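Methods — Computational structure assignment.
A single polypeptide chain was analysed. Its primary sequence is given first, followed by the predicted tertiary structure written as structure tokens.
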Amino acid sequence: MTRQNVHISTMVLAVLIALGLPLVVHSPTYLHIMILLYLYAYLTTSWNLVGGFAGVLPLGHAVFVGIGAYASTMLYLQYGVSPWIGMLVGGVISVMIGVLIGLPTFKMRGAYFALATIAFGEGVRVMIENIDYIGPLKLNGPRGLQIPPLNVGLANMLFLDKKPYYYIILFMLIAVLALTWVISRRKLGYYLNAGGEEPEAAMALGVNVARCKLMAMAMSSFLTALAGTFWAQLTLFIHPKSVMSLDLSFEIAFIALIGGRGSIAGPVLGALLLRPVSDFSRIYFGDKLPGLHLIIFGVVLILVMIFQPRGIQEPLTRAYNKLVDRIVSRRARGVLESA
């Protein structure tokens, strides 16, 4: 048995366990927690394309979640357009907004880029909160939009049970992880890593760093907007503070930084660690200590940056590789002894 076979077997086993989980877990509460875990893993993996591989620090990605949520919801409520189509519309709009943000801000370095993304995201949120209509489209200001649970079915991404939502977000997560894996092994992935770590050296070698970062921003914006549509159809209610808040942007970034930005497994590991903490802190302390989960995230982030600057994926990956080496060596010894 080779290392590659062990890796493939591990991935297949993880997918099978995820697919079979709703057959064992019937509680809507726990299924909802798992849905949110996959959703945040998806959001963080999408953020990781630009915030990890490209080496920048966007802190306003909630704006793309909001664009996806509002675009699909308004089209569905006012024109009866299926959310599956509306999510693509929101994705295209987010690509245009993402490129518009990236063109001037990718010339900035360090904290200036992060501050620029925060300012843009907050500006859009405040604007949405104070506008009732954009042309014929109703935004409803701070009151938000409510989706009536009618016309239940796959065509409208509306279900009475949690299981369909579980499988939709699971397949979305698998797809974005597969896309990230492919990009990491293509020229674009190498160019992004080079441009993120040593942009001057990469440009000296002929790499168009700005164009590569814009491509990553476009893909990240599009994928993040798809999650916004899913969020809207899951909760059936959206308003600016729920889908465009700084809390959401920070949470996405914190999960990536703690898990390990620039890696494939980091966002998923970060979500597995932090999302249950966030959910249970809100359940038990949300009314008395709102925002406690962000304080916990901050403390964990400080500890990780001190002891594991590359995220928790690094020690976990080392431990996994050692286990794989043991399995392969034992298998090899067994083959030799049998021969």
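Note: DSSP finds 14 helices and four strands in the chain.
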